[in-house]
Structures are given as C-alpha cells and as structure tokens.
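your task:
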Amino acid sequence: MSTEYNPASLDAETLALAQQLIRAESVSPDDAGCQILMAEYLSELGFRIESMPFGDVDNLWALHGDGAPLFVFAGHTDVVSPGPLEAWHTPPFEPTIKDGLLFGRGAADMKGSLAAMLTASRRFLTAQPDHLGTIGFLITSDEEATALNGTRRVIEELQNRGTHIDWCLVGEPSSNLALGDVVRSGRRGSLNAQLSIKGIQGHVAYPTEALNPIHAALPALAELVAIEWDAGNDAFPPTSLQISNIHSGTGANNVIPGEMNLLLNFRFSTASTEASLRQRTETLLKLHGVDYEISWSLSGLPFLTSGGELIPAVQQVLAARLGIETELSTSGGTSDGRFIAPTGTQVVELGPRNDTIHKINECVATADLIELSHIYSDILDRLLGEGTR
C-alpha cells in the first residue's frame, strides 16, 4: 500500500489496512504475514525494522527517531480461533463492512488498533518529521495463547540492551459502551493453581473401605470460595478466586473416585501478593486435613500507572476529541502490559469497544477505527510534538 500522504484518503487507508490484517488467518501463535505487512508500511515511513523471532513466535521491533523519550505502540497480530465457521454471518477471515461495522476475527482484538497505529504514525510523521525522541512498535504473534515467546522475550532482550521505554500505549480493546469511555491504567494480577485431592477408590456400597476425595474436600473448598482475600483499594477491586474446572470419578455410578482435580484462578489486587495467596490457600487445606498436591503458576503481577505524563495526555486528547471524561480502570483480563510495566514504563491500554471480542461475528464500528487513528496521532503530538520541546 502506498504511503504517499493524502489526508482525505488516510481514513479510508485505516480501514483498508484493518481489512488486510484480518484476511491473514493468524490464529495464535501464527502471524500469517501480518508483521511483514506492518514492517513494509513502517519502513516506508522511515522506521528501522528488526525481526525478533523466538521459537515459533514472530515479533517486530521498529523505531523512528533517536534518543529519549521513547513512546511505544504495543500490540499483537495473533487472534483466537474463530470457532464454528457456520455460526458466522460472514467468513471470519473475509473482512466485511456492513451497516457501519467491520466484521472479522480480530477486528476489535486487535487488528483494528494495529491499523489505527500505522496511520496515526503516518499522520504524525507527516506533520512532525523532526519530532522529539523516538516512536517504537512492539508487535507479537504470541499474546492470545501462552505468551511465553512474545512481548515477555522482547522486553528481556531490550533490557539486556539497556533500552528503556518511557511510555507504552497498548491497543487492547478497552472501551465498553463507547469509544474512549474506559482506559486501562493497570491490570490485576493472575495466579493459577492445579489442585489434586487424594482419596482411596472403592465401591460405593463400602464407603468405610474407601476415602471419597470429593467429600473430603468440600468443606475446605466451601471455606476457600467464601474468603474475603482483601478489600481492594482505590485503584483495584477486591481480589477474587474462581474454581474454573473440577474433574473426578470414572463415569460409573458405583465407584468412589480416588482423586479429584481442580483448576483455580486468582485475579488479585495490589492489596495481596502471590506469596500471601499461596500461603493462605495451603494453610486452609492443611487445617481441614486434606491430602493434596498443588502446583502454582503466575501469569502476571498486578500493575498500575498512577503518575507521569502518559495518562494525562490520553485524558486530554479524549476530552478534546470526544468531549468525555474517561474512566480509568484496572478490570478485565491480563494483557502484555504486565511484561512492560515492571521495567518502570508508564503503560496505558486504549482501543475500541470490547463487547464482541473472542465472540462469533466479532466486529468494530468503522467510525471508531477512523477516530482511534486520530486519537493515537494526537497523543503522539502531545508527547513528542514540536510544541513539547
């Protein structure tokens, strides 16, 4: 796609780029050529392009300008599976615009945001070719699945090089009812546990010769889910625990099972720690005399951007363009911001509405994508424009 600047056609270019990206069947961790398209576009704008593959994951690192401060657009090209194709009104990888909506897998999460980032950069660089500092892109194909070889690995490499990101805008779909009504200023932590309750298998007619792990665990589990782990704080809701999976038994109605397996997940605030949640859980299981084994895995620690220049810049742009006072939120799932924020970077998430993400017939309003591109370029202007010197 040509990068010759034409303000009248740049809005249409945002939609065209989004459609090109949606056509790529980039089910995680397959990038399916999305980053090649983005790299070619950014290269024509003068960005220095670096590919950072790790394992089967493609990662893109691109820079324009020199020195501090470094502003980075972060996002992912991978999408979740479309599910049953026959349930879609239109094929998920054949982008379709109908009634002001762009349909396709990844339209909202988050190929629309990627397209808006590209055209926002073009708009800004045309007006500010000698901008302050550096603009960067950190793009991965490993966000929706394991997230092991994507942003996490790129950040590790950048830290080894001594590269510090000052501001990072993640294009996750943060908006709820209208574009820009919610901005993520942080995220809760996510802690997972695989819990196995041990029993003794036997015949249901002879319960004294067996040990039912379901019966043994129920009092402990009832107490576990009733605990108030913390009260949250001004920035975070209270920590919550959910039992997401339970499996036990052979399928026969006359066999007492010998084991019960559960999956647990904590979404936790800064009022709790990984260590405190683990300790309280295992102390309770021991108090109930449960014979158990448990393994823990941390998906990410909670993070919060509460100071600095990034949040005010985003708030000012949204107020100026949309006439709204945006809500700062830490709700929702995890994002790659959890790998970036611990380095001392100010992180914010701003993208389109999230009401159709991961769903059949995922879509985004075309007017919102066009506006999002302007919002992104205005944020660049407030932070890196000539007027900020």
Q: What stands out?
A: The CA atoms of residues 300 and 338 lie 6 Å apart. DSSP finds nine helices and 19 strands in the chain. The first helix runs from residue 7 to 23.
